[in-house]
Structure to design on (425 residues):
């Protein structure tokens, strides 16, 4: 295997030092390292972080390869500084059997750009009626530990309880898309002043908050692990805060777009801003940012949702919800949090790796650990050009925005997937 000497780099914001990578692991960290056989990467002005981990990625394969493939999504992830992503189950066919999750897992291994960990469906066909093959997926080569019907809520409380009980046997997690469907029928955006003025049917915050409240009670009753996907409201934060104070085994994520963009974007009627859950208010954003800092929200997850042109460039009412996120997430985190490197490492690498049980990921560069890391230039600023993104889709809400930070390099088990800001493979 190759050897790399990253010179004069700041490890998670600390004083500059050298990092030697050899045989897939970090061989040494310290000033003045000498390794004549190693390829030198100049780390001056750069920050080394543990490779980013995304708990919520849509790779679309199998079934919608026109929007994304495992390979193209993996490339986008590597360029965004990620070394592992968890691929959601709403593919076609749905990832509700051992065969489909193993297919996604093998496609990830073949691409070799990031570790792709499939998420299995909770219910057959995401229909919310019968439990999927949770045990078979857990015992498969993909070793699924997180299950989600994301895009659909597991609305039946009896079914949700059974799912939580089932996965408890192998310390699995149910990741809930919190949306009471009877409160969001026909919804087009956040219910509030803007939706009223635009004449669009609103998606009320309580539809999210009610499901979270129900599910934390179920998780507490069962003693199982619950993860709440894409939290978007101030009320949800308070429900989670109360649950965590009681010791409920619940974790939660927030997306970059819910940390930055408000429902006022819908005033343009540009479907790129249509997402589920919808963009909320400035008050919600402030609550989400505070919860991310204080740990009520554990993770920044992208909810990377690529869509083909015909699914986005149409009337708002007919557009599919979702936004790209993998190649811009770290920049949004820097824009929102500033250079709080330890916090960014915790929310975008360590915590998601712990939640997903991804061994070797989410570990700060140190002697003996797998060399899964990313190098960031915090001083750089870049303007987002959709045509330059690695994803097959172009539905980024940050088009032509200038954002802080640039991924210079990403290493997966000691081998570069990105060098000088460009994909290697």
């Amino acid at each position: 295997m190759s050897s790399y000497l990253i010179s004069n780099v700041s490890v998670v914001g600390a004083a500059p030092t050298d990092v030697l990578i050899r045989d897939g692991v970090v061989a040494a960290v310290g000033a003045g390292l000498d390794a004549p056989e190693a390829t030198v990467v100049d780390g001056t002005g750069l920050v080394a972080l543990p490779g980013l981990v995304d708990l919520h990625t849509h790779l679309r394969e199998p079934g919608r390869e026109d929007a994304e493939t495992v390979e193209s999504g993996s490339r986008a992830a590597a360029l965004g500084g990620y070394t592992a992503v968890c691929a959601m189950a709403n593919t076609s066919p749905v990832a509700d059997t051992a065969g489909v999750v193993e297919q996604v897992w093998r496609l990830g291994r073949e691409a070799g750009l990031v570790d792709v960990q499939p998420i299995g469906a909770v219910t057959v066909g995401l229909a919310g009626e019968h439990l999927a093959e949770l045990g078979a997926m857990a015992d498969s080569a993909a070793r699924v530990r997180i299950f989600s019907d994301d895009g659909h809520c597991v609305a039946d409380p009896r079914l949700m309880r059974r799912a939580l009980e089932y996965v408890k046997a192998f310390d699995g997690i149910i990741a809930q898309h919190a949306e009471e469907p009877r409160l969001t029928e026909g919804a087009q955006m956040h219910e509030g002043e803007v939706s009223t003025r635009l004449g669009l049917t609103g998606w009320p915050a309580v539809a999210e908050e009610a499901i979270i409240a129900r599910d934390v009670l179920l998780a507490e009753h069962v003693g199982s692990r619950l993860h709440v996907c894409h939290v978007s409201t101030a009320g949800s934060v308070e429900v989670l805060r109360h649950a965590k104070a009681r010791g409920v085994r619940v974790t939660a994520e927030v997306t970059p777009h819910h940390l930055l963009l408000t429902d006022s974007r819908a005033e343009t009627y540009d479907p790129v801003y249509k997402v589920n859950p919808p963009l909320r208010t400035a008050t919600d954003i402030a609550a989400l940012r505070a919860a991310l800092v204080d740990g009520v929200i554990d993770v920044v997850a992208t909810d990377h949702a690529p869509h083909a042109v015909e699914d986005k460039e149409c009337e708002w009412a007919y557009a599919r919800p979702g936004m790209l996120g993998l190649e811009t997430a770290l920049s949004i985190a820097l824009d929102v949090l500033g250079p709080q490197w330890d916090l960014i490492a915790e929310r975008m690498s360590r915590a998601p790796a712990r939640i997903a049980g991804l061994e070797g990921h989410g570990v700060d560069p140190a002697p003996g650990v797998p060399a899964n890391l990313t190098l960031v230039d915090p001083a750089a600023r870049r303007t987002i050009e959709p045509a330059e993104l690695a994803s097959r889709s172009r539905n980024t809400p940050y088009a032509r925005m200038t954002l802080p930070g640039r991924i210079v390099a990403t290493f997966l088990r000691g081998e570069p997937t990105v060098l000088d800001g460009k994909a290697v493979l």
Observations:
- Residues 3-47+367-423 form a domain with the Urease, subunit C; domain 1 fold (CATH 2.30.40.10).
- The CA atoms of residues 304 and 325 lie 5 Å apart.
- The mean pLDDT is 97.
- The chain is about 30% helix and 25% strand.
